[in-house]
Every structure is written in structure tokens, then in C-alpha cells.
Amino acid sequence: IGLDSAVAGMSVKIMNSSANVDMKDSLKVAGLYSYYAGGILGYGSSCGSGSDNDKDFFSITDVTSTGSIGLSASGKAVEGLHAQAYLGGVAGRVCLAQAKNMGFVNVSSTVDIKSHVKTAVDANRPENGSESRDSLYVGGLIGFLQVATIKTDILSNLSYGGKIDVEDSLNCSAVGGIV
Predict the structure, then answer these.
(1) How far is CA 83 from the centre of its chain?
(2) C-alpha span between 171 and 132 (Å, rounded)
(3) Pairing of strands 142-146, 91-95
(4) Quick check: helix, strand or coil at residue 76?
(5) Are residues 38 and 77 in contact, defined by beta-carbon separation less than 8 angstroms?
(6) CA 155, 156, 160, 161: dihedral to nearest 10 degrees?
């Protein structure tokens, strides 16, 4: 799934699934990029201020993913190239379920993740302003995780056996083996 567009009050569950991905992309020209990539899911809803923890969610259980995800840019910094990148072996960005026996359970990945993106400060945008802040979130399983309210254990029995290679000049980078 590239983009989950479920409306409020709906839930999406992915169960008993596997994927072998080979994803490569290159950002070469100036632009504003929002980039979501995962072995199973790119972008899976956002937790909103009115989210119901039993009804508005994404649940991924008993899933495996293999392969590779690669994001790169030109060999030199490109003025005007701004990127918000979310890369995960299973999900790029997701709002997980907070109900019992749902969430992110029995999940493994060996997806190799490589991100080599260089950016330059755009003269027309502030360097540290929220609009121009370039960010990279990489996790072996989930790049960026949202949870509205935690009432139960929603992350359990997780395994990552791939490798992560990050070489970026972004303002904010967060890299983790699982999240």
C-alpha cells in the first residue's frame, strides 16, 4: 500500500502477509518532497486530535518484508531541494492501533535501507524555520510512528535483520533499528 486514505472511524488491518521490495528513487532537481517508503506500507493515516483509539487505526500483524529501499539525490547539494523522508522496512509513516491484539505484532524485516540525500539552504526560505526544515526518519521497521493514546502493548515480537546506510546533510535525522 502506498497511501492509506481511510477516513475517520475506519481501520485498516494487514495480516499474514509478506513482501519483497526493490525500491530506488533519486531526487535530482529543486523541489519540496514528502517521501514515504516502506516494504508493506508507505503512509498509513495520521493520529488526529479526535482519534478514537478503538476505531481509527492501522494494524500490522504477522508480516515479513525483504529486499531494499534506496533514496538518493545528486552527488552535490542542490539549492532549493527540500525533503521530508520517512523510510522503514515495513512502514514509512503510520498511526498504529491501540486496541488489544492489534498494533504492530509479530513483524520482521530484512529490508536494506539506504539514504544518501544532500540539500542546500534555499536563499528564499529560512534555514531553521519549520517550513524549510529537511528531515529524515529511518527505522528498520517503521520510519515514523504515531500513537494517540497508549493503553496496551502495541509493539511486540519485532525483528530487524537488514542494514541501514545513511549519509545525509539534512537538518534533522533520526535513525533507529526498529523505529
Answers:
(1) 13
(2) 9
(3) parallel
(4) coil
(5) no
(6) 180
Beta bridge partners of 4: 44
Tens of pLDDT along 21-44?
999 988 888 778 888 999 998 888
Please compute, for residue 36, the number of CA atoms within 13 A of its CA located in the half-sphere on the CB side. Answer: 19
**Contacts with 25 (C-beta within 8 Å, 6 or more apart), sequence order:** 35, 37, 70, 71, 72
By CB neighbour count within 10 A (0-12 exposed, 13-18 middle, 19+ buried), where does 52 fall? Answer: middle
Q: Which amino acid would we find at residue 89?
A: G
How far apart are the C-alpha atoms of 49 and 114, rounded to whole Å? Answer: 33
- Residue entry with cell 537488514: 162
- DSSP string of 80-144? TEEEEEEEESSEEEEEB--STT-SEEEEEE--EEEEE--EE--TTS-SSSTTT--EEEEESSEEE
Percent over 90 (pLDDT), the chain = 31
